[in-house]
Every structure is written in structure tokens, then in C-alpha cells.
Give the backbone structure.
Amino acid sequence: MTRGAPSPTLQPGDTVGILGGGQLARMLSLAAASLGLRTNIFCPDDACPAFHVSDSATIAAYTDKTALQNFAGRVDVVTYEFENVPVDAVAILEAAGVTVRPGAVALEKAQDRLVEKQFIRSLEVATAEFHGVDDLAGLDQGLQNVGRPAILKTRRLGYDGKGQTRLTEQDIDLHASFEKAVAFAWAEVGAAPSILEAFVPFEREVSIIGARAADGAIQLYEPIENVHAGGILKTSTAPARISAATRAAAERATIAILEALDYIGVIGVEFFVLPSGAIVVNEMAPRVHNSGHLTADACAISQFEQHIRAVAGWPLGDPSRHSDAVMENLIGDDVKAWRDIIREPNAALHLYGKKEARPGRKMGHVTRLTARSPAK
Ligand code: AMP
């Protein structure tokens, strides 16, 4: 590869730099290896799941300018496995002459829930009603605007249901007054800049894993149906139980997002499906996505390979699914069932190599396959 090219196309043997060293980076690294590419994982923690399966590691803070510059000199393109990478880190990498895919714009939009919702609305795609909240008075005003029940979420650094709290009639009864319930909710989010969202009475949740290549070509995996417990994804199922019209609307929204961001790589877009079949975007993740893990076993080309192909400047693969699949996350002590799971037929077990099974921690997943059901 010609280093510093604005639109790099990697050759086998070249190196993909990955910011973040969790299970997503681990699975990206495995996919890169299958394609003859190397990886260098940049992670502040010296015990990252991705280090076990990468060619090289850079252990440094995302704010360490010198480490970022050295990293830029050792890799041929950079991508990331999580959306909370500081945008400044991307700027430092780009100034050092390496291309970052997807770029800073996608990160900026996805890092702030308020900016993200405004962006989605600007594409004429529906979101929950929302109100930016900077203080208690703003929360009060927000509740008048969006109504109850509502969910208060921090604008930044929330994930897996963290940094959010609900405001329902029961909460108000529990706290004996509206004022106390509101003050409690505000304290729960750490009095940080937040967004108040109307609670969406959804029938189900689905996601689309989409990909856009350097030449603008787009491929979408079929919608996947997701069930959350306590704000954390529990299962993902394909096919999703939605109509052709709902699927088409979710696909249109995903394509609009990919194009508006001039995106290169895989994106996960989460939707609420209303009883009418209408869709509402919950959020987007500018990276491979937990709900797309089933693509590794149910499709010839996984979301991980698809992302590596895109960031390498290669053509995208065919996202079609050959089997029906249910992916179950193994969270905390769930992972103890691995000895039973490994004996199940048609069950693909993936363990992330994390030492300690803390509550709420994603330790692995299993994807159970069955014959593909006839298309409806
Ligand atoms: P989030 O971290 O925003 O993806 O939220 C995690 C989960 O909480 C979602 O997948 C939903 O199950 C639920 N949730 C979040 N926001 C809303 C909302 N506005 N209305 C209903 N449920 C929500």
C-alpha cells in the first residue's frame, strides 16, 4: 500500500490498526487474519481480549499523542471498535498521515445522543420525541414536552443501559412527589447534560447491520430481532418477525444514514417497531454491533469480515443468510454453561477470553443455527 494515500487500498500482509481491544476488536482481528491482513490493537488496558489474537499491540491512553503518532506510522489504515474514542485521537492520527474509517463525522454524531437524534431527524427518519436537558428546570420543561413515561439518558458515554433512568407514574408515587422523583432522576444521571426521551411503546426491537465500501457500494444484512434485559442485549434472532414494508422502511433509513455520513465500514442501526409496523430509530453504532454476531455463523461473510473489507478498501461481500439463527449473549455467570453448550449440535460457542465473570459483563455468546425458513 502507498502510505498516507487519501483512499488507501490494502494488500494482503498490510496492517489494520484498531482502537479498542474488547471482544469486537478480537473478532475483527480474527476476520482480518482470515483475509491475510495483520492487526495492531491500540488499547489502554494491558489485558485486552483482542491482544490474544492480534499481531501487535499498543498499550497507551487514547489521549497519548506520541503513542498515537507512532501507531499511525505502524499501520496502513485505522478503525475503531467503540464509539467513545475521543474525536481528538482521530484528528491526531489523520494529521500523522493515516486514514481513519469510518471517519470523525460518524463518531461525532454517535457520541452525543442529542446530536445523533437531531441528525436522524434531519434525514426525515422518525425518532422518539426528545428534549435536551442541562438542569433541573430543563428536565421539568422536558417532561411537559415529551410527557410520561419518559427516559432520561446522559448525552455522552452511555451504553448497555448505563447512564439512564426511567420516569414513570410509579416512580412519582414511590418518591411521594413529582419534584422528588424528578430530582432523583437528575441525580441518577449524575446531573450531566442529558436527553429526555418519550418512552416508545414498541412491539419489538430490530437492528440492521449495514456496510458501505470506499466506492460507495452498500450491502445490508437482513433485519435482526433483538430482546434486551436490563438495558443489555440478551438475544438476537434472524429472521425478524416484521413485514416487508417495515423491513423496507428500516433499510431506507439505514441507507440514508450511511450516505449522509459518507460512511466507510459497518454500522449497526437500532429500531423500535411500533404495533402499526412503523419504525423509530433508537440509535446507531458506527462499528460492528452485538446484534450482528449471528452473521459470523449464519452468513458466508460475517459483519467482521465485511467491516475489514470496507476499511481495507476492498469490495463488500454478499450478506445473505444461509441459516436461521438465534444468538444469545453469555453475560456474567451465564458463561459457566459453556460445558453444556459445547455439546449442543449446531451451536457455535464464542468465548472472549475474559478472566473475571462480573455481573453485566459480556463473556461470550452462542449462536444456535437451524435450517433457513422459506422466505415469506
Ligand atoms: P439504549 O442504551 O438507548 O440503546 O437503550 C437500551 C434499551 O433500553 C433499548 O434497546 C430499549 O429496550 C430501551 N429503551 C431505550 N430508549 C427507549 C425509549 N425511548 N423507549 C422505550 N424503550 C427504550
Summary: The chain is about 30% helix and 25% strand. The mean pLDDT is 94.
